[in-house]
Amino acid sequence: MHLRVLCLSLLLAACGDNNTAVKEQPLPEVFVVEATEQPYRPSKGFNARIQSRSDVDISAQVSGRLIAIHFKEGDQVQLGAPLFDIDPAPFKAALARANAELSRAEANQKIAAKNFTRGEKLVKDGFISESEFDSLEAKKLESAAQQESAKAAVESAKVDLAYTTIKAPLEGRIGRSAPAIGDIVGPQYGALTTLVGQDDMDIVFQIPEKLILSAQRPDSRITINDIEVLLELQGGTVYEQTGKINYFSNRVDATTGTVEVRSNIANPNDTLRPGMFAHAILRLTHPLQSLMLPQASIQVDQRGTYVLTVDSSNVVTRKDIITGERINENVLINSGIDAGEKVIIRGVQKARPGDKVTPTAFVPATSTSTTEE
């Protein structure tokens, strides 16, 4: 009797286990995002420095004693503003002498011209010889040449006198004065000061030669006109003005394999100064449409980079992809999937290619601060 009860109990237990096995397991839940094309502006950064196209050394053209300095060091000066005065007295005297020499040369020229005119009549009447007439003609020509030389000397003296007042050749910010009042200055003295034009700045940086070759390919869709230059200053501040590339060096630096590039940029508020270091960012003027996926959806194994997708039948499929650069939380997808495909971003560990899953649209969490904004 006891044996029969025991067999019956084992039979019932076996039936119970079998019923549990038959019970259907729920499909694993995964969260998916849709591969979409998004606006993208490719950019590339390079170390840069600021230069001025109007960085002028102010030098003396004539020698003399400095008698006045008309500017305050570091001030903004206007075009034509007086900067230095050299003692003009010796140059005024030289101009007076040159004018006196010109007057004498003009008088000699008049006398020689009259004598030549008289000689023309006298030689015809036989009162003077041909040789004497030739001498009169030579004196006329010589006096005319002396007159022209005297005129040139006057002009030279006027120029030297004008050089005693040194004026600003352009509008800009003046540097410190090297000489003091009373110093003897001249062409051999060197720069008296420097003047930097405010609104004529260049961003100078080096780019790899392979980028130049890539941009020059016949099939390249991007030209220099499609690129703008942004400037990131020290501390991470992005400068409010943008520039355009206007110069490529005609040679490659053999030691670095780079090409010097320049971009002119406006400087209306005098923010930029020559010698500043910054970060030049090349960026497309107009965005491209590019396929992107969140970084969290990208998987890597020995076979390469891939994502897991869910098809219309909710079946998981592996898609090998080629990625581009990372843009914030997203990654550019160059090939491997198409726009509109559903890619698993969470629950990858629950999914295997060929398995059936329950996909749920992934909704990124939004912070309170972002919502308030």
UniProtKB/TrEMBL annotation:
SUPFAM superfamilies attached to this UniProt entry: HlyD-like secretion proteins
One term under GO cellular component: cell envelope
Highest taxon in the source lineage: Bacteria
Domain Multidrug resistance protein MdtA-like C-terminal permuted SH3 per the UniProt entry, residue ranges: 291-350
Subcellular location, principal: membrane
InterPro entries on file: MdtA-like_b-barrel, MdtA-like_BSH, MdtA-like_C, MdtA-like_HH, RND_pump_MFP
GO biological process, one term: response to antibiotic
Record domain Multidrug resistance protein MdtA-like alpha-helical hairpin: where: 95-164
Compartment(s) of residence: Cell inner membrane
Membrane topology of this protein: Lipid-anchor
Family annotation (Pfam families): Beta-barrel_RND (PF25944), BSH_RND (PF25917), HH_MFP_RND (PF25876), RND-MFP_C (PF25967)
Residue ranges constituting the Multidrug resistance protein MdtA-like barrel-sandwich hybrid domain according to the UniProt record: 56-185
Domain called Multidrug resistance protein MdtA-like beta-barrel: residue spans: 201-284
Signal peptide residues on this chain, from the entry's feature table: none
An MF annotation (GO) of this entry: transmembrane transporter activity
Family stated for the protein in its record: Belongs to the membrane fusion protein (MFP) (TC 8.A.1) family.
UniProt cross-references to PANTHER family, sorted A to Z: ACRA/E-RELATED COMPONENT OF DRUG EFFLUX TRANSPORTER
Protein name, entry field: Membrane fusion protein, multidrug efflux system
